[in-house]
Specification:
Helix content is 51%, strand content 11%. The chain has 310 residues and is mainly alpha-helical. The protein is globular, with a radius of gyration of 24 Å.
């Protein structure tokens, strides 16, 4: 269980912004040999896909996972034109799964981002007082090579995010003799708006009857543990309430907020609470509020005098 072992390490939590920055700077900053992708989550368990969590929450038989996935895809696709007629009908499988994740449907796709600081935002945004939160960093290039070796495709061009037939053969044809559990980085050929804004990508398990961690373990089981830990890293953030506010404030100054990550009125409305983190902003609005009230009083007085003359 590679991710569980990493979680069980005695990690020194990052309790200052400088330690968070130091973690990012230590990940081959020039990215000559690696391509890091990140996931923030506020729980100390190995990452799970939304489909995996749904099967567990509903106490369903995981052996029927492919049937459950087909059910969800079919119901989504059959009703998509009713809910939003503007969405193209010619979506391939990965584009469709990405769109389903965009709107919150449970799929096999596990959300990651190319942006370390976006992952930090998602890790701390809903963090409760006194809790720890985590950012997973995975070297996608290293992971892809392990998956291709496991499939016997080393040296081949393998693009399941672009070519639908490749995705269906290696991720959805569980009855094939050569079907193997893997985890592979996948990005749709056509991005939806949210995926583009969030610099998003996905890690995708092939055998959804197994856990995400078991699929990952299948392709790195013969790897040295030190090698695994040099390509899969974990940042633990211990965020007291003041530190959480500091993190969100610094991210806001980097234009990382709900407004920027979730375009539209809903994201903007959810983001305005960030303004409360800046004392200088509060003082400006305190003065503005008093000025508004003074003007309203003056207007009321003028209106009263005018009424008296008439």
């Amino acid at each position: 269980m590679p991710l569980t072992r990493i979680l069980n390490q005695q990690l020194e939590p990052a309790d200052t912004w400088e330690k968070i920055e130091a973690f990012a700077k230590g990940l081959d900053p020039e990215r000559k040999k690696t391509e890091w992708i990140f996931r923030g989550q506020d729980c100390n368990v190995p990452p799970k896909t939304a489909l995996e969590r749904t099967i567990e929450d509903f106490n369903l038989n995981k052996d029927d996972a492919f049937v459950f996935e087909f059910t969800l895809i079919d119901r989504f696709l059959r009703n998509l034109h009713i809910v939003d007629p503007s969405i193209p009908k010619s979506l391939d499988t990965v584009e469709l799964l990405a769109l389903m994740r965009h709107y919150g449907a449970p799929t096999r796709l596990l959300d990651f981002t190319y942006s370390f600081y976006l992952a930090v935002f998602f890790a701390v945004e809903t963090l409760k007082q006194g809790a720890d939160t985590f950012v997973w960093a995975i070297d996608a290039l290293w992971l892809q090579k392990r998956a291709l070796n496991h499939l016997g495709l080393a040296g081949n061009v393998f693009m399941p995010g672009k070519y639908d037939e490749e995705f269906k053969r290696y991720f959805m044809s569980e009855e094939r003799n050569d079907f193997k559990p893997i985890v592979y980085q996948i990005t749709p050929d056509r991005l939806n708006q949210r995926l583009s804004v969030q610099q998003g990508t996905f890690l995708c398990p092939s055998d959804i009857r197994l856990s995400f961690e078991d699929n990952l373990g299948a392709i790195i089981k013969n790897e040295d543990q030190n090698a695994v830990e040099s390509h899969i890293k974990l940042l633990k953030i211990s965020a007291s309430d003041p530190f959480r506010k500091e993190i969100l404030g610094k991210l806001s100054q980097m234009n990382i907020s709900r407004a920027s990550l979730f375009p539209g009125l809903d994201g903007f409305a959810q983001s305005i609470k960030t303004a409360l983190l800046f004392p200088s902003t509060i003082e400006i609005y305190r003065e503005k509020r008093f000025n508004v009230r003074d003007r309203e009083k003056e207007e009321q007085l003028r209106s009263g005098k005018t009424a008296g003359r008439t």
